Amino acid sequence: MIRTALVVAAATIALAGCTGDDGPPELGLGRGVDLDDLTAAVLQYQRDAEPRTANLPGSRMDAALVRMCNEAVDAGEAPDVFSAYAWTARDDDGRSYDPTSTTFQQSPSPLLPTETQVAMGDCVQGWVIWDVPADTTVVGIAFARDSGEAATWSTS
Questions:
Q1: What does each C-alpha distance from 107 to 51, 60, 81, 82, 139 come to in angstroms?
Q2: Rounded CA gap, 59 and 100, in Å?
Q3: CB neighbours of 118 closer than 8 A, spacing ≥ 6?
Q4: 128 vs 10, 15, 21, 80, 145, CA distance in Å?
Q5: Which pLDDT does position 11 carry in this prediction?
Q6: Do the Cβ atoms of 73 and 101 come closer than 8 Å?
Q7: How would you write the pLDDT of the chain (156 residues) with one tens digit per residue?
Q8: Considering 51, 70, 97, 141, which has the largest number of Cβ atoms within 10 A of its Cβ?
Q9: Can you name the residues that pair with 140 across neighbouring β-strands?
């Protein structure tokens, strides 16, 4: 009887953060999440991070300051390779935008490296930039690993 209650309690706790088929739970800015052997967080979001003169007509550049830490427990493991391309911006119509590799002198800095090795216990932090339509509303910043683990942060 006690074992059954523990199983039910554990299942209830595990499901408490689920959002059904809509994907991973949504986090607030500044909140970190553990994903396998790393932690990730969106610290800030900036709409119109680039001056209008730098953008193509009908678009704008939005940016998020993100942080990723290698939390591997085995010192013998190779450094993780973290990439800015693991991050996407999502709008209120369900569209996703990949980071842009185009930057300007006025870009927020430091930029998150396109790809960098991060040793166990170390972190990397920087801005990721997206080129989005000028009239879109970015509602979330999503991070996904090759393993399928994912998290989304609300921009509001």
A1: 9, 12, 24, 21, 21
A2: 12
A3: 68, 69, 70, 79, 80, 81, 82, 124
A4: 37, 31, 27, 19, 16
A5: 29
A6: no
A7: 333 332 223 222 232 333 344 555 677 888 888 877 888 999 999 998 876 555 577 888 899 999 999 887 565 565 566 888 889 999 999 999 999 877 666 677 888 887 888 888 889 999 999 989 989 999 999 988 777 778 889 998
A8: 141
A9: 90, 154
What one-letter code names the amino acid at 87?
W
Which tokens go with 102? Answer: 């185009």
Query: Which H or E element spans position 11?
Result: helix 2-15
pTM of the model: 0.75
Distance of alpha carbon 126 from alpha carbon 58, whole angstroms: 26
Strand 80-83 and strand 87-91: the pairing is unpaired
